[in-house]
Write the structure tokens for this entry.
Amino acid sequence: MLITEFQLRLPAFACALGLASQIVLMSTQSTEAQTMKPTILLVHGAWADSSSWNGVVDLLLKDGYDVRALPNTLRGLDADAAVISTYLKTVSGPVVLVGHSYGGSVISVASANAPNVKALVYVDAFAPEAGESVQEELASAPPPPADFTIAVPFATPTGGDADLYVNAKYFGAIFASAESPEVAARLAATQRPFAARCLTDKAPAAIGWKTIPSWYVIGDADKVIPPDILNKFATRAKSKVYHVPGGDHPSMIAHPEVTVAAIEDAANTVAH
């Protein structure tokens, strides 16, 4: 049988074609990996729940992000951070971790040993240094009214603690000062308390913002964490700052677009 020159060259041609296809596929996969959007994980703070992120979630979903608003147990800094750390291990790919208020302390601790967390976003949030507590971070702030919180004692294996609720008469005036009376009343009625120990628990040595790039959203009319303290946190962490003019403590409720802009800025940095 006559074997043509083309037939002799066919195996080499097929091999070359297969290699070229493989190179194209690898190149495509590499490009997709570089532009893959990170998962956005949202951690609420005290006197709130995951619904406080509803406006943010809606905008992120519209923009095609995989977003999850996680429950914060509000039992103590180590325990709360451990819950988030455990969840982080179930997420494949890069993560932008976002915390509001006390949730900022939680993400600072939870991210320290989480290699998939590539960016942190703080929203009107605490960002503790090692050894600092919420109570110490607020030392320079005007003291709240004596009856600002209502304490409901509960027993623990090591003694006792108390759940702290914001007195409803202060919720709209201080905590959610930029919200309508109707929204503030709903937030007060559905608030989740946090354990009193969360105020005095000290952050451990490993703090995420020391090694992970961060962004900071500051409500310029925050009456819970005064803006000068928030600015101190942002400066210390070398964060990129977004301001919410007139924004209250949960500034992401009335102005979710500012928080989303900070998150997507962080996400774009991660994706590239």
About this structure: The beta strands are 39-43, 67-70, 95-100, 117-123, 149-156, 159-166, 194-195, 214-219, 240-244. The chain has eleven helices and nine strands.
